[in-house]
Amino acid sequence: MIDAKIEEILEDLFARESEPTHPIRSMNTDVLAAAAEQGFVRLENGLPVLTRKGLEAGEKVVRRHRLAECLLRDILQVPDAEAEEDACHFEHLLRPGLEDRVCTLLGHPLTCPHGRTIPRGECCRSAARDHVREVGPLCDGRAGQSGVVAYLSTRDSREIQKLMAMGILPGSDIRLTRLFPSYIFAIGHSQFTVDHTLAEKIFVHWRD
Ligand SMILES: [Zn+2]
Ligand SMILES: [Zn+2]
User: Fold this and answer.
1) Closest ligand to 103 CA?
2) Which residues make up the environment of ion ligand 2, defined by Cβ < 5 Å?
3) Which ligand has an atom closest to residue 65 CA?
4) Which ligand gives the minimal distance to the CA of 85?
5) Distance 35 CA to ligand 2 centre (A)
6) Which bound ligand lies closest to the C-alpha atom of 123?
7) CB contact set of 88 (below 8 Å; sequence gap of 6+)
8) What's the gap in Å between 45 CA and the centre of ligand 2?
9) What domains can be seen in the chain, in order of their start residue?
10) Ligand 2: distance of its center to the CA of 107 in Å?
11) What is the pLDDT of residue 199?
12) pTM of the prediction?
């Protein structure tokens, strides 16, 4: 496990590889020396440059940070300004294996809320091989399409109660039958109707 302070350096340097204007937080010289000693960076004219090992580690930290941002925004409904700060703490908690599960839950997002690319993981590559579709809201489905409820993007307790009363819970099989004039879908043998406001809050792992 890499020290959180070293991870921050690797994260900033990796982000700067694809975005030259990406800000770099101030680096403590002791941490920098430790990063160099562990083979993550080498110093060129006093400036740190990522080694191959550092690039690999930096890519993972950036992936965790950006997935944490998506998790905070999409599932935990944290406003963007707060999400940025929380993501910095969160990324250190997302341990190997867990990040692929979060990525799968979110439907292998390509970009973070800031529009920056999320480095791909093993889960994204196998999802592409198995033709698993992205997670999308119910309102973007096609009539006749089915899938599994991934998550509910609301924290309004009345909406949550309404959705739960219909049996819409993560993991439920759902089949969309009509899109107009309102969204009609089946869960098990029961049919339900929701308006657009609710339909855009139900995220489904669609099957083709
Ligand atoms: Zn971001
Ligand atoms: Zn993935």
Assistant:
1) 2
2) 103, 108, 121, 123-124
3) 1
4) 1
5) 28
6) 2
7) 65
8) 38
9) 1-131 (1.10.10.10), 135-206 (2.30.30.90)
10) 7
11) 94
12) 0.71
Provide the residue-wise pLDDT of the chain in tens; the chain has 208 residues: 678 899 999 999 999 988 888 888 888 889 999 999 999 999 898 789 999 999 999 999 999 999 988 888 877 777 777 777 777 777 776 777 788 888 888 888 888 988 899 999 998 888 777 666 668 899 999 999 999 888 888 878 888 888 888 888 888 899 999 999 999 999 989 999 999 999 999 999 888 6
> Ligand 1 mean position to 80 CA, how many Å?
9
